[in-house]
Amino acid sequence: MASESFLGIHGTALALREQRLQLLSANIANADTPGFRAQDIDFAQALNAALAPAASASGDAINAAVDGARFDAPSSQPSLDGNTVDGERAKAAFAQASLEYRASLNFVESKVRTMLTAITGQ
To answer: How far apart are the first and last CA of the chain?
Structure first.
């Protein structure tokens, strides 16, 4: 509990961003799989769900939040085999999500560095 208050929402955000990156990478990996339906996560909805007081009582709040915020990604290029992955859009979403993940990670690293400095006095 102390680490949650120390990191604020950023620890939860980092875990959610990781889940989103995994989902987006699955979209890219399955771009040629017949019938594959591209998915994404509404990050704001997932974060709100994961931070809700009821979510903290459940053991797996992150996965539940991701499941509740998951949606079929829109496709601008219909495919005859039923695959809804738009390759360029999927790669762009992954690149943006990677930058967002790195920003969250930088913030967490900064908080940890600050704590280490306070502990060691250097």
So the answer is: 26
Sequence-distant (6+) residues with CB within 8 A of 35 are 81, 82, 83
Q: Six-digit token pair at 77? A: 């290029």
Q: How far apart are CA 33 and CA 53, in angstroms?
A: 39
Q: How many domains does the chain have?
A: 1
User: Which residues, listed in sequence order, are joined to residue 40 by a DSSP beta bridge?
Assistant: 71
d(CA 44, CA 109): 22
Mean pLDDT of 15-23: 96
Angstrom CA distances, 92 to 24, 52, 53, 97, stand at 10, 30, 34, 9
Is residue 64 within 8 A of residue 55, CB to CB? The reply is yes
**What's the chain's length in residues?**
122
The domain in which residue 49 lies consists of: 2-120
Report pLDDT for 121. Answer: 82
Prediction pTM value: 0.84
How far is C-alpha 43 from the geometric centre of its chain's CA atoms? 7
